[in-house]
Amino acid sequence: MPITHRIDGKDLASGGRTSPVFDPSTGSVREEVALADAGVVDAAVEAAQRAFEEWREVPLARRARILFAFRELLERRKEDLARVISAEHGKVVSDALGEVARGQEVVEFACGIPHLLKGAFSESVSTGTDVTSIRQPLGVVAGITPFNFPAMVPMWMFPIAIACGNTFILKPSERDPSASLLIADLWAEAGLPPGVFNVVHGDAEAVNAILTHPGIRAVSFVGSTPIARHVYETAAAHGKRVQALGGAKNHMVVLPDADLEQAADAAVSAGFGSAGERCMAISVVVAVGPVADDLVAAIATRTRDIRVGPSLDEQSEMGPLVTGVHRDRVRDAVDSGVAAGAALVVDGRGLRVADHDDGFYLGPCLFDSVTPDMAIYRDEIFGPVLAVVRVDSYAEAIRLLAENPYANGAAIFTRDGGAARRFAHEADAGMIGVNVPIPVPMAYYSFGGWKQSLFGDTHVHGTEGVHFYTRGKVVTTRWNDPATGRPDLGFPTT
Prior knowledge:
This protein is 38% helix and 22% strand. The chain is built from 16 helices and 22 strands. The strands form 6 sheets. It has a 7-stranded mixed β-sheet, sandwiched between helices. A 6-stranded mixed β-sheet has the order 9-8-7-10-11-21, with helices on both faces. The chain has a 3-stranded antiparallel β-sheet with strand order 5-6-22. A hairpin with a 2-residue loop joins strand 5 and strand 6.
């Protein structure tokens, strides 16, 4: 029986199409997952709409208690969730645990929803007239999430959406769908009513049904830039509120005064963690001036020492890629870099993992002397490929960032506080790190990039998430004295 949808608290195994779910470490098919059609999406929306009528009336304090219970269950089951992620995605368990922890931070943030939804009140804006502003839930909302963070990215969305009084439909990646069902189990155990959180598995057919469904009020998305643009344009054209986060090509600028050991450690961790399958991975190191030779040598030494192996092996530091097709695509990108004339300092294409010949492995690859006209610089590779671009000055580094179409995150490594402050002001990206290679904000700040890394005007989680999943209402109130009241055809201004 395939992995099922979860609608209205019940498993639904839709007949028809399925898709294989692989174990990336062995290359074998673990299970099949059911792929939803428009009818399944309809059923999920109907269940979510029924649940919304009651959930929106649940007091804030009770919502917060359910969220806190979910948080406690998540803490107790985080090892189980991490191993489910690792088995289907291919990232090592320690990395999966980090993913769960970063998602849990958003759950903890959402536990403060009674404070976060406080409105404003103005007394006597005119004679006997008061004004109140409040925020109310939208209704049924949906999240379409990527394979690379099957727990964290959904948890950027649904805790806040549900805390605000909405009901939620999650369409996770069909490549690693099981984490979403374990999360649904935890919600049910925490006391969330059926229909408030629903899971619909699927591919493009399910996505397009969500984007065009009249019963869905808002869509959150994380994925590649071409799909993000499609999601934004299609959902917005159908009257929905949209936040669509796209691709990235994150740059890490290393100035000559930087701590070389710290910079090299950061480049390797941020470039090859989770096999580079992160939207905030460092994929370009910009070496400024004389630091380049020593920096490349230090990165190369560390890269060669990375232990690549099965995701559930405690000795592994980097696991396989998510599918064989994706592995081959990344390997083709490495081939193109060699053909374009970049220097392949560390070549991971020949990696073999003992007793796992059919796994989706590709060793870490390090390029030097990459130029902006090369495809390995321009394209989001989404794999363990790190490119070093050499420039002569800080100004050239800033220009590279400005000319790149992506603007998710950027980092600088330096001992100079003035240079760091200037970079934070000038760098053309939505999230900036100073001696921090992956500047993913904490839950009480919002996550999001600029340019082709974001379509829509609202970032994910934090207070922007609260505003995205609610709409404002202003109530103007006047209580007249019946003894003195008379018709007034003017605007109440005094």
